[in-house]
Amino acid sequence: MTDKPETQTGATRRIDLWLWHARFFKTRSLASKVCRAGKVRLNGQIIRKASVTVGLEDVLTFPQGDHVRIARILDFAERRGPAAEAQKLYEDLSPPRLKKERTSPVAVREAGSGRPTKVERRALDRLRNR
Fold first, then answer.
1. What is the pTM (predicted TM-score) of this model?
2. Cα angle vertex 10, ends 8, 14, to 5°?
3. Under a CB-based contact definition with an 8 Å cutoff, are residues 18 and 76 in contact?
4. Domain ranges, residue 32
5. Three-class DSSP category at 12
6. Is 39 helix (H, G, I), strand (E, B) or coil?
């Protein structure tokens, strides 16, 4: 993001710090925890330390929520900036998310069957002049 010598091809950063700067995780400790759990792959190799260094053009694969993210490192940041800055740090190679279809519809009941709903109860109260 800056024109400092650090952003040239020989630059490296700790993986947990880069994941946090790129806004994949809310806290650096959460990024570190995912790394230590062995859930992050660096160029296809499982890593188990948050102190592993990453360089430009490295590819990271890691879980985020309910799907897997794949990101190619394009740049480093000096700070954790806004989301627009963070998106310039990587190229997203993740497959597109599939929309989840609802397996069962919301509970539907016929009007007048079962216990009265709040609206029906208020209508009954108005009818009875309560």
1. 0.69
2. 105
3. yes
4. 5-92
5. strand
6. coil
Pairing mode, strands 12-14 and 59-64: unpaired
Query: Residue 38 is encoded by which pair of tokens?
Result: 């062995």
Q: Which residue has the tokens 């394009």?
A: 74
Residue 93 has pLDDT above 80, yes or no: yes
For 20-71, what is each residue's pLDDT tens digit?
999 999 999 999 999 999 999 999 999 999 999 999 999 999 998 888 999 9
Q: Is residue 118 part of a domain?
A: no
Question: Position 95: which residue type?
Answer: P
Q: How many domains does the chain have?
A: 1
> What's the CATH number where 39 sits?
3.10.290.10
| Residue 61 Cα to chain centre, angstroms | 13
Residue 82: what residue type?
P
Per residue, the 3-state secondary structure of 95-119, as one string, reads CCCCCCCCCCCCCCCCCCCCCCCHH
Closest CA to 31 of 12, 18, 45, 44: 18
